[in-house]
Amino acid sequence: VNGHTAGCAEETRYFAGACWWTESTQVAVSAQAAANACATRGGELPSALALVDFGYQSGIKLNALGEWTSDLTNLSGPDIFAVVTVSQDKVINSELSTGARSYRCVIPLLS
Asked: Quick one: how far is CA 83 from the chain centroid?
């Protein structure tokens, strides 16, 4: 566009209009720490349904610990909520936001 090209950096794969990390983190962190880490890199956590679909892509393996998504559920009070997770077997579940899970970021296309 206008003489520029867009693409994904190494260690990412183009999927659903963005660049997805091909591997999740090996260190488990809270949901807020995961969201902050992705935001710091200019991205965000994926939605649950998109992460399930990404997990079916060739060569992609979801983390055995499960992975955080951007979807929230069960708000019980100020800063007391659960976040939707996706397991290695692509099962959707939830975990308290203060729990520890792996994550992968979804980054906009680079130009």
From this structure: 12
